[in-house]
Amino acid sequence: MPGRKPANPLVVILIASLIAGTLDGLAAIFILAKGEAALVFKYIASAIYGKAAFAGGVGMVYTGIVFHYLIATCFTILFFIMYGFIPLVRKSLYLVTVLYGVFIWVVMNLLVLPITQIKNIITLEGALKNILILIICVALPIVLISYRYERLKVK
What are the phi and psi torsion angles at 34 (to 5°)? Predict the structure, then answer.
């Protein structure tokens, strides 16, 4: 569409965060937790509340959902900032997607989880499965949406 103005960046970030967070949550529920949605989000809440999160009810599930989307939003904002300041990020959509998915895994598993109450045991199979989920469900939508947004902004 000629003359189409790009959306407000905050709206774009919110949409990208919701898409990435939802896809990641669904992958966690159906691939990692065999359909146990409450368990996934109580696990996330246990980062702050420890074992008490698993004994909690629906409130703990909602807390885990909020934490989950907050994390997705942080990684979305970070990518949008990187896109504006690091020219290398604008070079190869697919390479950047893979690298960002790996980056998210490294940050979460080697920096964030060790300072939480979650006991995180890393295995090669688990790491590969989680990295693949992060590449496809989190990094890909964030990268695609930011690339599209930036292209509209330039026109």
Answer: 50, 45
Q: Which residues contact 5 (CB under 8 A, 6 or more apart)?
A: 152
Instruction: List the domain range (segments joined by +) for residue 149.
Output: 9-154
pLDDT > 90: percent of the chain: 85
pTM of the model: 0.92
- Residue 106 in domain: yes
Round to whole Å and give the CA distance between 145 and 76: 10
Packed helices 37-49 and 58-85: angle between N→C axes, nearest 10 degrees? 80
State the first-to-last Cα distance of the chain, in angstroms, to the nearest integer. Answer: 11
Tokens of 110: 């080697």
If DSSP codes are grouped into helix, strand and coil, which group holds residue 24?
Answer: helix
Question: Side chain identity at 27, as an amino acid letter?
Answer: A
Number of domains in the chain: 1
Query: For residue 4, is pLDDT > 90?
Result: no
The residues, ordered by sequence, that sit 6+ positions from 58 with a Cβ below 8 Å of its Cβ are none
Task: Enter the tokens of residue 88.
Answer: 């290398």
